Amino acid sequence: MLYLKKYLTEGLVQVAILLSLWGVQVQVGLDPDRPPSLHELLLGQTSALTPARHRHLWDLHPKSVDLDGFFTARRLLGWVRSLDRLQVPHAEVEAWLVQREPGPLPDQPSPLDRPADGIHRNVQARAAQEEDEEEEEEEEEEVRSVSLTLRLQHRFGGPGLRPPHPGFCSSQTSEPGTGTGTRTGTGTAEGPSVSASKPASSVLLQAAVSLQECLRLLEDTCPFPEDPELGEAGDRREDVQRRPADRYAPLRPPRPSETSSMDLELHWQDLLSILEPEAGGRTAEETDGSVLDQMSLLDAALEGGFSLEMEASLEEERYLEHRTTREDRRGQDQAERRHEGNVSEDTLLSLSFCPSSETVSGSLLTDAEKEADSDSGLSLDFSHSPASPCVSEASTSSSSSSSSSSSSTCMSAGGSPFTEEEEEEAVESVAGSDMELEMRMKQEELEEEMGAVGGGSAEQLFTFKPGNHKLLQHLPWTEHVGHDHTYPQPWSPVAKTTSSHGRAAAARDGASPYRRSVSESKMWSRDERRARALGIPFSNELIVNLPVEEFNDLLTKYRLDEDQLNLIKDIRRRGKNKIAAQNCRKRKLDVLLGLEDDVSGLRRYRSRLLREKEAALRNLQEMKLRLGTLHQEVFSRLRDETGRPLDAAEYLLHFGPDGAVAVASRQNQAERPPTGRKDGKKPRDKRK
DNA sequence: CAAAGATGTCATCAT
DNA sequence: CCATGATGACATCTT
Predict the structure, then answer these.
(1) Model pLDDT for residues A476-514, shown as the tens digit of each residue
(2) Which one, A33, A330, A372, A432, has least CB within 10 Å?
(3) Residues of A from 463 to 492 whose C-beta is within 7 A of strand C: which are they?
(4) Could you tell me the residue range of the domain that residue A662 belongs to?
């Protein structure tokens, strides 16, 4: 038996060492039945004994400091070091805070309040608990992903929250499904608690309700065995035994902490700011979806370490993405404006509206984008901008008219409010001369000629058939001409072909009698009048809009003197410049609106960054506070050679790059640079 | 009739 | 060099 016992003991020790090297916590203690504290479960190695520690354990002078003090101090020193960096794992900080908070842990002394724990932990491997420890490891991985939910519950749970207890740290890693599943399990497990303890005066009541709905929904999806004792069971072994049957997420206690609540507050502010503008028009499902998305985002952020950084980068990403999207859209719009005649104004409109209508799907990013920049607003503003009356006309009439009619409507509305007959009357009354008739004859003649030549665009241009306005509207120049005060051209193909729509538009717009009362000669632009005066045989529209080859062909087909040629070129140049000016103004307005949009987006971004900065400062302040407290705790347990406590005002803690921790006096520290090796009044040099 | 906005025109530069 | 587009500045028109 002795022989076997020896081997067994050695084997256990070896297993423990191996596990320690592997990073698995080795739970040791004189009392194997004592349930490990939450602190131990979460902090793991702080209570584990690695071989190196064993050596120090053996090397410790029995008179120097008691073992408990040593271990506790070491743990505390480790925390000091970890607090020095801001990448303190959330779970550990929270665990520490949980332990520190006296309220929720009436029966669980904090690690600082349990000086006698460590000394009783001998090296006693527990091979039987190997599986449990593995599960605990995985469980710690889960802690982060679940912590958000816990914090949410902590926030909304109010007084109904149960105090955290180590017994809650049952491990359950066989959660089916993804992260949603994890939330599902947790939410379900915490469901009764949440529902039983409604927040008394929560400002975020609505969001809390939606969260509860979400949790309830999840609970319905995955029914869990209700266990009211989970909150305070504290019997970890019982939990472990129940685990195989319980295939769902671990039941964990809320771990309230100031850090978590502040983090949550920050994230919740963002969440609300995102949800707020659309809360009215969104369904509960969408809201819940956003909440879930936000939660997943927060989970990811928590896993990333420092959540604020993540948040800021995310926001920046959103903003940049928005800008890219909008610029792409702008570029697309311009490209369409330039190239096609195939896209009607309505199509353009639908393209502009498309992003906003497609992004109602509750995605966080798209929501943020919508909220952050109101990109659709840009399109709307743009479409309703005064510089694009054609588009706005199309948008207002698109519900009742086809795309072709809307496009032609805006043409005619700006072009001429007269009907075909009225136009002819006007022509006759204004010109009233044989010259006009002659010119029209020539126009028709030219039209036939061009048709015979076979020029495609010219054929379309010169065709007076009413149905051909569909072809005309696709010509590039027709897209931009919303107003035409100086080129009414009553006989022009465009005016004729769109006259019927023009009448409708005129009727709808009130068909200002101004035009009729004005002298008819005003209907003619200066160039028109000049052209007529010089007897130019084709319309200004033709002069302006013909491609250069056809235009040159046209000029060669007529005998034109110098003045006529110059005037024709001037007309063409002015006409093109007019269109260019319209496009230019349109673009300018577009840019202006885009810049306004950018400004508002940047303002929002700035305010968010300021909020995050404030939160980070609060965080930092709190960490400093905790560090100070911890510092005091550490020094309260340190003793010099004579057994007297060290004065924190007199000594400093040194953290070497190799993990060594030492105590140095402040005087010596002041005398020599910090990089210097500590010496002099060095009561004790503790190394790991 | 004045003011403001819309639109046209010119000059100039760039492509 | 020419045609054309872009754009600022000014003129003219419209409301």
Answers:
(1) 333 333 333 333 333 333 333 333 333 333 333 322 222
(2) A33
(3) 485
(4) 642-688
